[in-house]
Amino acid sequence: MPQTSARPLAIFGGTFDPVHLGHLSVAWEAAELLDAEVRLLPASVPPHRVPPIATAGQRVAILRAALHGQSRLMLDTRELDRSGPSFTIDTLHELRAEQGERPLVLLLGADAFAGLASWHRWRELFGAAHLGVLSRPGVSAVLSDELEREVAGRRVAGASALRALPAGKVIELAVTPLEISATRIRELLAAGRDPRYLLPAGLFDDPALLAAYRSPVA
């Protein structure tokens, strides 16, 4: 595989229904640990979960407001712009065609990583990107034998190793987990409450941003 030394591009996907401080804090820490540009990619039709409550346009508006005023985390809407399920491997192939040999890093929570073998064309992921596993300090995910065999020999300890190759390595990133649930946030909003310190403060400046989650007034 060709050698490279470019600054990595990391991607962090999800429904972001809505995006909250838990999402943003781990993405920010990953950007620092990897010295990488991080893009948040809202999924259109997530293959592994129920469809989002908010529309694509509403989720994008919330993300834009949440990311305002900083330049480390960026928004990428490509999965919303194409039809069909949001398969990660398709997104990575698109990015590879655009970015050439630049290192790509797919950011995954430890639980998602442990279930990787259920993903669409999951073995191809290692040829398309490095994998950055967002984990609690000192806690490693328990992997199936099948996934452990695939990961064996790919693990690296330092972020500098990711710059030498465009794809193929796995790194654990110890980040500070914030136990915030999007489901709980939606419940609070539906009940007419404001989850003020669970969401970015800027989302409360415009009542229309969170209107999709609030129950109509009788």
TrEMBL record:
The UniProt keyword set, sorted, is:
ATP-binding, NAD, Nucleotide-binding, Nucleotidyltransferase, Pyridine nucleotide biosynthesis, Transferase
Q: Provide an example Pfam family for this protein.
A: CTP_transf_like
Protein's pathway: Cofactor biosynthesis; NAD(+) biosynthesis; deamido-NAD(+) from nicotinate D-ribonucleotide: step 1/1
* Keyword Transcription regulation listed: no
The record ties this protein, via CDD domains, to: NMNAT
Question: How would you classify this enzyme at the top EC level?
Answer: transferase
Start and end of every Cytidyltransferase-like domain? 11-187
Protein name as it appears in the record: Probable nicotinate-nucleotide adenylyltransferase
